[in-house]
Design a protein that fits this description.
By secondary structure, the chain is mostly beta strands. 11% of the residues lie in helices and 46% in strands. It has a six-stranded mixed beta barrel with strand order 1-3-2-6-5-4. A four-stranded mixed β-sheet has the order 10-7-9-12, with no helix packed on it. A three-stranded antiparallel β-sheet has the order 8-13-11, with no helix packed on it. A hairpin with a 2-residue loop joins strand 4 and strand 5. The longest helix is centred in the N-terminal third of the chain and has 10 residues.
Length: 178
């Protein structure tokens, strides 16, 4: 379980001091809860995120345990270090917006025909209850040729999960290499 600590102050100078000491600044928010301003050890957070199996995971902050989902990372444009992370409470019984990752399986036919696999969306926006939230959308791209794409309307349907993206939005496709 990922453990963090509450922030005493939410000012800029305190945040800079925490970042200098190797901490990652985080906010946890959601319906029916007070916002929680907290910090995690940067390396512990990265290790945990790489090893977790589900989209919803528990965090322990100030003696309390919460189920959360990562909503957004803010990264440094030069060093690509994570600066800040926003998390949302995964409350069962509340319908909320989440971003579900997209994973691909197979090697497209178009790669042999001088094509390149392109992700238009690495995460798909959905609206659902946390109890039916899928961990990811796994797409088989082995039949894609140059100029073909998998659209949002082609994603597998899950009961209780509404895909917010426009149906004509490309998720992944193969384009001709230049």
């Amino acid at each position: 379980m990922l453990e963090g600590k509450l922030r005493d102050s939410i000012g800029k100078t305190n945040a800079k001091a925490l970042k200098r000491d190797g901490y990652l600044i985080a906010n946890i928010y959601g319906k029916g809860h007070e916002n929680i301003h907290c910090t995690f050890k940067r390396n512990d957070f990265i290790k945990y995120m790489r090893s977790k199996q589900t989209l919803i995971f528990p965090v322990k902050i100030g003696g309390n345990t919460y189920d959360v989902v990562v909503q957004e990372y803010q990264k440094d444009p030069v060093t690509n270090d994570i600066l800040h992370v926003d998390m949302m409470f995964a409350n069962k019984g509340y319908v909320a917006k989440f971003k579900v990752p997209v994973k691909v399986v197979g090697s497209p036919i178009g790669l042999k025909n001088k094509g390149v696999l392109v992700f238009s969306r690495k995460r798909v926006a959905v609206k659902c209850d946390a109890s039916v939230l899928p961990n990811n959308y796994t797409l088989d791209v082995s039949s894609l040729d140059v100029g073909h794409a998998i659209l949002a309307r082609d994603l597998p349907q899950v009961d209780g999960v509404n895909i917010i993206e426009k149906p004509s939005v490309a998720i992944v496709g193969v384009i001709k290499a230049k």
